[in-house]
Specification:
The protein is mainly beta. The chain is 0% helix and 55% strand. The mean pLDDT is 90.
Length: 161
């Protein structure tokens, strides 16, 4: 005897269930977009997309201008929507690059020539990339190449899109 499991389903592009549409732990499908959602029971009980990539943050304290920091390894591709960066210090300026590759000896820059951040309050948002998808099976590396002023910290967040 066959069993049928029926999930809540929408065929409307962009439709996302609300917290009132789902019970804790209940799944819903948007068949048009190919997305699956679940209502979390922890915390605020938000509805989240299953498999959604989360932002990744990297902080370097007292960068030197010649830093090479392996931030993480990703088994899946990460399409980037933006990079946000901020610096702390006195008249700080840092030029940095986000790079990726399956070998640390051969890396590809996300933004060719790097990004220069001087913003100490709201952060710098970068949305134009030469290589906007970090390939699956890659190490992600943050490097610094130039510093001026007194720089206490550099923070970079990669936001998937």
């Amino acid at each position: 005897m066959a069993n049928t499991i029926q999930l809540k389903c929408s065929t409307t592009a962009g439709a996302v269930p609300t917290t009132g549409n789902l019970a804790d732990g209940e799944l819903a499908v948007n068949a048009n977009d190919g997305k699956v959602f679940v209502k979390r029971s922890a915390g605020s009980g938000l509805v989240v997309e299953v498999g959604t990539l989360i932002p990744r943050g990297i902080t370097i304290l007292y960068p030197t201008g010649a830093d090479f920091v392996v931030a993480f390894f990703t088994p899946q591709a990460i399409p980037l929507s933006k990079i946000r960066s901020a610096v702390q210090g006195t008249s700080p300026s840092v030029t940095f690059s986000v790079k990726y590759g399956s070998s640390l000896a051969s890396l590809t820059e996300v933004v060719t020539g790097g990004i220069t951040c001087t913003n100490t309050t709201t952060g710098l948002e970068t949305t134009s990339f030469n290589n906007g998808t970090i390939a699956a099976g890659s190490f992600v590396v943050l490097t610094t190449s130039a510093i001026s002023g007194t720089v206490n910290s550099l923070h970079v967040t990669l936001l998937p899109g």
